[in-house]
Design goal:
Layout lengths: L1 E7 L4 E5 L4 E6 L1 H4 L14 E6 L4 E7 L5 E5 L7 E6 L3 E7 L7 H12 L5 E6 L6 H16 L3 E4 L8 H8 L3 E5 L6 H8 L25 E6 L2 E5 L13 H4 L4 H4 L19 H7 L5 H12 L6
Parallel strand pairs: 3-5, 8-9, 8-11, 9-10, 11-13
Antiparallel strand pairs: 1-2, 1-4, 2-3, 4-5, 6-7, 12-13
Length: 305
């Protein structure tokens, strides 16, 4: 039977079979040792083939080829990656301007990891009720910037129930990966549109302005017809892997649009003469914040191996 992996706890997987029943499955030993470059051979979102061992359990025998996936550097093994989720229709990053603050560098890393597979991206700027006029103006600037890059941007306040319907609409009929730092309100937003899930929410420390992790593994939930969300652990860092220096700029849409315009075909847009990217930055065509993110990713190449 084929099935969809909804949840992984390391060695066991909850799989929704073609008969709409839930099976607790494990893998065959040889499947786990078949040369994967990742710490987890099976990820949430995978389509797998499995043999039914008994009424409620099964053994996974094969994984269908993934159309895409979101990966990060493994916490346990820096030389390997950890697949967060696969076969997704869009990524949804919940970000906040304050309490806690989501940095532009983190946002850009997340967008690049999705853009590497041409996965559509959504940013939900949550906790708008906490913003003063200066922060609201800054958020508008960010929305204008990312919208110009093809990213869908939404504003929301889970506590004030603002923007919830737009958030719900953007998820309809899709498998969406929901991510962001701990404390940004991912679970609270989901509880607004799917209260039956009753996801745990976290408090944000007044001292550190950081959230407490409430999700320890990725999990997929069906919240409507053909509508799934994948809730992920609060991510502190998103190490990019398997991206070479020469291809990094391809995953910045504004830089990709200028391919071939630099004097040198292998231009890294750092110090080379005749660089069209650096000229575009000077002219305000490319945002300085985006270029800084690019340089940061380029310099921290250990995160992309």
């Amino acid at each position: 039977m084929k099935g969809l992996v909804l949840r992984s706890t390391g060695s066991w997987y909850d799989v929704k079979g073609e008969d709409n029943r839930l099976y607790n499955c494990r893998t065959k030993g040889k499947l786990r040792l078949s040369g994967f470059k990742t710490t987890n051979p099976i990820a949430v979102g995978d389509i797998v083939a499995f043999e039914i061992a008994n009424k409620h359990e099964g053994i996974i025998t094969a994984i269908e080829e993934r159309k895409n996936y979101i990966i990060r550097k493994s916490i346990k093994n820096k030389n390997q990656g950890h697949i967060i989720a696969s076969n997704i229709d869009q990524t949804v990053l919940v970000a906040t301007m304050t309490f806690p603050k989501t940095s532009l560098g983190f946002i850009d890393r997340f967008l690049v990891s999705a853009e590497a597979f041409r996965i559509p991206q959504v940013i939900v700027f949550n906790k708008t009720d906490l913003l003063d006029s200066k922060a609201i103006a800054k958020q508008k600037q960010y929305i204008e910037l990312y919208t110009s890059l093809g990213v869908t941007c939404l504003e929301a306040s889970a506590l004030e129930n603002e923007g919830i319907e737009k958030f719900k609409d953007c998820l309809k009929g899709k498998k969406s990966l929901l991510s962001g730092h701990s404390g940004v309100g991912k679970s609270t937003l989901v509880n607004c549109i799917a209260p039956k899930l009753d996801l745990k929410t976290s408090e944000v420390s007044d001292f550190a302005e950081k959230g407490v992790h409430t999700t320890t593994f990725a999990e997929m939930f069906e919240i409507g017809k053909d509508t799934y969300i994948i809730d992920t652990p609060g991510i502190k860092e998103l190490g990019l892997i398997d991206i070479e220096d020469g291809e990094l700029s391809d995953y910045f849409p504004e830089m990709r649009a200028m391919i071939g315009e630099c004097r040198f075909h292998n231009c890294l847009h750092t110090h080379e003469p005749g660089c069209a990217i650096k000229k575009a930055i000077e002219e305000g065509i490319i945002a300085t914040s985006r270029y800084k993110s690019y340089l940061s990713m380029l310099e921290n190449d250990d995160n992309r191996r």
